[in-house]
């Protein structure tokens, strides 16, 4: 019985340790929900964000990133790994798809120490389209089919722009003659 209890206790401790290790790398908007000196900023069409790191001793912008729409920026600080006494820490960051909970922060750069740095978040003019939509194809034509429902027109069926049979997609369909 004691051997079974010991195995159960060891298994519970192992599961608890595994849960603690995996929870430290989760990227939630705003940060990991405990004081880890790590922050996550998500950019959307209506809230496109720019994040800047400011050295408060000089007011200088040390680093800035325009977060693309549909992505998130994960920022962390590594204490004591900087190259000199003026920049004793390093900023570690990575861009990844919005909502991604796990990922690596592959970029590093020396930064001011903890007491003299500030992260500023600014909103860019909205709305801003995601990169794949900003340079995408023109909008598709629509036609009114039997009332108020608008349906996309199949590009193969659509009349050419100069075609005299081309009608506004917002006009009701041409009435048919009554059947006899």
Spatial arrangement of strands, main beta sheet: 1-4-5-6
Shape from CA axes? flat
Distance between the termini: 93 Å
Instruction: List SSEs in N-to-C order.
Output: HEEEEEEEHEE
What does this structure look like?
With 180 residues, this protein is of the alpha+beta class. It has a domain at 25-128. The chain has helices at 2-23, 131-134; strands spanning 38-42, 49-55, 60-66, 71-78, 89-97, 107-111, 117-123, 142-144, 150-152. Strand 8 (142-144) and strand 9 (150-152) form a beta hairpin. The longest helix has 22 residues, at 2-23.
Helix/strand layout:
Blueprint: H1 2-23, E1 38-42, E2 49-55, E3 60-66, E4 71-78, E5 89-97, E6 107-111, E7 117-123, H2 131-134, E8 142-144, E9 150-152
Antiparallel strand pairs: 1-4, 2-3, 2-7, 4-5, 5-6, 8-9
